[in-house]
């Protein structure tokens, strides 16, 4: 165990000397209905980012609460671990079930091409070499539905 710490200490020291930049949000992609029943629908989508840093990490266990126009849709979780490479784009796949009653409160027939407010709050584990830290994540932005490609599987 001491050997592991002696290897990680210089890495952590060097990492602490660099200016770590937050990933840049690029958009929502591959939004789709995975399964639908009379009470709920399972949705999936990817959240695309760009890593502006000169090092890579692994992203796992992301969990977010999603709101559209202040209406709570549900909790979405990351489907699989994601390797993030230095100075590269990456996408975190999410999946979650929403109540069709909540979906009807959104009044999707009234959306047209008007922007909707999408808000997320949650946590994510980010790490390297088996050491992970939990970080809060949040996003709030307006999007038109025509910006999001919808897939029905």
CATH architecture: Sandwich
**% residues in beta strands:** over 45%
| Number of individual domains | 1
Stated plainly, the CATH topology is called: Immunoglobulin-like
Distance between the termini: 47 Å
Summary keywords:
9 strands, nine-stranded mixed beta sheet, Immunoglobulin-like, 153 residues, mainly beta, 2 helices, disordered N terminus, single chain
Protein architecture, described:
There is one protein chain. The chain is mainly beta and 153 residues long. It has one domain: Immunoglobulins (Immunoglobulin-like, Sandwich), CATH 2.60.40. The chain has two helices and nine strands, in the order αββββββαβββ. The protein has helices spanning 2-17, 100-105, and strands spanning 24-36, 40-51, 57-68, 71-78, 82-84, 88-99, 116-128, 131-143, 150-152. Strands 1, 2, 3, 4, 5, 6, 7, 8 and 9 form a nine-stranded mixed β-sheet that branches. A hairpin with a 2-residue loop joins strand 7 (116-128) and strand 8. The longest helix has 16 residues, at 2-17. The radius of gyration is 18 Å and the shape is globular. Residues 1-10 have low confidence and may be disordered.
Summarize the helices and strands and which ones pair or pack.
Elements: H1 2-17, E1 24-36, E2 40-51, E3 57-68, E4 71-78, E5 82-84, E6 88-99, H2 100-105, E7 116-128, E8 131-143, E9 150-152
Parallel strand pairs: 1-9
Antiparallel strand pairs: 1-2, 2-6, 3-4, 3-5, 3-7, 4-6, 7-8
């Amino acid at each position: 165990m001491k050997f592991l710490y002696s290897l990680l200490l210089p890495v952590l020291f060097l990492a602490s000397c660099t200016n770590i930049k937050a990933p840049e949000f690029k958009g929502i992609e591959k939004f789709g209905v995975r399964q639908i029943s009379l009470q709920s629908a399972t949705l999936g989508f990817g959240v695309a980012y760009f890593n502006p840093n000169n090092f890579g990490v692994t992203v796992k266990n992301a969990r977010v609460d999603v709101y559209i126009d202040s209406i709570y849709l549900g909790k979405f979780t990351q489907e699989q671990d994601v390797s993030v490479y230095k100075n590269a784009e990456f996408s975190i796949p999410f999946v979650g079930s929403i109540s069709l009653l909540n979906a009807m409160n959104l009044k999707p027939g009234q959306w047209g091409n008007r922007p909707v407010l999408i808000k997320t709050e949650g946590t994510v584990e980010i790490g390297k070499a088996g050491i992970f830290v939990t970080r809060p994540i949040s996003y709030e932005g307006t999007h038109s539905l025509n910006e999001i490609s919808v897939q029905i599987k």
